[in-house]
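Subject: two folds for Thursday's group meeting

Dear M.,

Sorry for the delay on this. The cluster queue was jammed most of the week, so I only got both jobs back this morning. I'm pasting them in the order they finished. Each block is the input sequence followed by the predicted structure tokens. Could you check whether the formatting survives your parser before we put anything on slides? The first protein is the one we discussed after the seminar.
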Amino acid sequence: MIRIANAQGFWGDSLEAPLEQLRGGPIDYLTLDYLAEVTMSILQKQYARDPQAGYARDFPQMIERGAKEIVERNVKVVANAGGVNPETCGEAVAAALNRAGFAGRMKIGVITGDNILNRLDDLLARGIELRNIDTGEALETVRSRVRSANVYLGAFPIAEALGRGAQIVVTGRCSDVALSLGPCIHEFGWKRDDWDHLAAGVVGGHVIECGAQATGGNCQVDWETMPDLAGIGYPILEAEPDGRFAVTKHPGTGGRVTVAGVTEQLVYEIGDPRSYITPDVIADFTTIQLRQGGQDRVQFWGIQGRPATEFYKVSISYSAGFKASGTMTYGWPDAYKKAKMADQILRTRLERLGLTFEAIHSEYVGANACHGDFLSGDPPPDLAEVTLRVGVRGSDPAAIERFTRELAPLALNGPPVVTYPSGGKPKVEEVVAYWPALIPKNEVRAAVTVREA
């Protein structure tokens, strides 16, 4: 059995969680998931400005802070912190270990090959159209505006790096579940056609990949009675060679691990539960058996898998114009009516200025922002305050900029009892859109390098 502790669900998650996982009890592996689709485009923009950037800079800092525990407790670390620049991230990790006084004490594995941005023209010229999975459009229609293109690699390159002695493994884009599946493949010797075992590893990885969502965070079930959310523990996967596993957390930490809470995470972002497609296997979530196995412990078994597809998924981002959004807060009495009138006034002024947008959207925070226009008639007249939030999107940055200048005047020439937020004039921002595609696996080659720290 191995214990895999996850401590990051996204880039921006708790800075203390990795250290708490390292120090809270025995673990064999520490995984950290930094990457989301939009994150790759952000990192690519950073890399374009600075060839030493393009990775999650939090990661080397964490390694420096936790180096003593990593070395002395022989914990292996696997993270997709490499972003679009895994090699430089690996160098930064080595420098962090040196600063912490542990130079030469471990090996660092770096996995590349996921970034195909510079290969797009060649791929398109050879008839690999990278059509949008959702719309069927060919990538050629937005090629000039593409900002990033990364393949979701699988878990076997991670297993290879571990097999070659790496104690810290840095990847670029890979499937979220690969971070914990890779250690299972390495430790248990699972083969590429061990479909049920691989599927079990995928399900276990899926449960812990979003960090504290598996231990009571962002949980609808019994959230009011959740113990010590301020000190919530992050999940630990206890994996067995035969595909059985349990999810738990360190003793004494906050939160709760229950069947109900874990099930919420299970159905998060999965699509068809019978066919959860990953680079390494298709997992059938309808075969999952689970039960409460004690306090803060849920056991899993019986998971089945099917052969993987012949394709990798590609996450592509592209520039899709510009946007801006701003807010005005209106107070009692008749706060909702004032916010609606302000929205009408703003739209009329924009129209009179001849400004057109691809989209304009208004929300009334405090009345219906989260659930849409579900109200029958106006909400009760005694709402203490309502925030009008208006956003626009379009291809003309000058029009977006002019919109940003039309909100502030409402403070004096619109409805009364208003607060203009201290953030000031809204900013014009580039819209980065997502383009999912498929690429034949024989077009992608992952490369694994292992070096002394």
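Second protein, same layout:
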Amino acid sequence: MRHKKYLRMIVLVVVLAAIAGWQIRREYRPPVLKAGARLYAYIANAGDGSVSVVDLVALKAIATIPVGPIPSGLRVLTPRKEIWGVSSLSSLSGGDGGYAWVISAESGRVISRIAVGPFPSAVEFSADGQRAYIASSGSNQIVRIDTATKQISGRARTGRHPWFARLTPNGRLLLVPNRDDSTLEIFDAQTLAPIGIVGVAEHPEQVVVLPDSSVAFISAADAKEISVVDLKRNVLLSNLQLGGAPHAMILKPDGGELYVTVPNLHAIEIVNTWTTEIAESMLVGLAPETGVLSANPITVGREPVTCTMDPSGELLLVANQESNDLAVIRLRTSSLLTMVPVGSHPTEIVTLLF
């Protein structure tokens, strides 16, 4: 009897293991890629000045690339299979400057460093990928870079403490919020000639533009407002008062609604972009910072700070700053697939299929 009972337990364990294996395979089917194709995530680690590379098919970290102090502003230049970012302090110049760095996805190495001035904030690419724009808040200027040669091809003076440079969807205008001047400065994207300056809410930071390039929304955390600027007439339309300091702004693909995360309210404010009014406030969880559009709440690691989706839209990637890992989530089933260890204090994520 004992032998039969023991045998039944073995059979039960085997059956349960088989069911568990089947369920895991069902939950995560690696993306079907062409032979030789790769799907990688790149994570900037502010704590150790590196970029972690995670294989999203194998679900494991495959490389750590040193880039420089406080890496940020990650962007993917898909035509050239490159990842660009900036370092706010330059160890190359004794800590008093800043530079852009470029990683080749194929070699997994930094192939260029370009001095752009102290405290650069982010990288913006033209639609054809031939030009990169970077605002240097420490030197009050915009730098334009030829992405093929990695050489600076133009500069323009800005107001005080430009936060970053943002192109309109039609590629004609370059928008720069000047934080200390509380202005939005507008430049011709081709020539960097100044076109206009619009006063906005105190200490502007982020900019989101409607798909038709007609209206810009500018967040001002200190003023707890969103400024709305008409880009055809270069005038301020209104300042929308929020219940707290705005953090991330997420625009629906059709441009009809703007979702603004307000961490201290544990909520998002929803802006109707057609009427430029606050349409709704919605509680979403403890101190939301950034996000993508999804239907269901998902538990991840400790202190999630940023998230993005892979190119297929099947996976949601979340960087967890306190636990130093990347959560990989299957959006179709709202299930956590795995937690991949990365570098110290991850802050930003981009993905590339190549």
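Two things I noticed about the second structure. The helical segments are 2-27. The two ends are 60 Å apart (CA to CA).

Cheers,
T.
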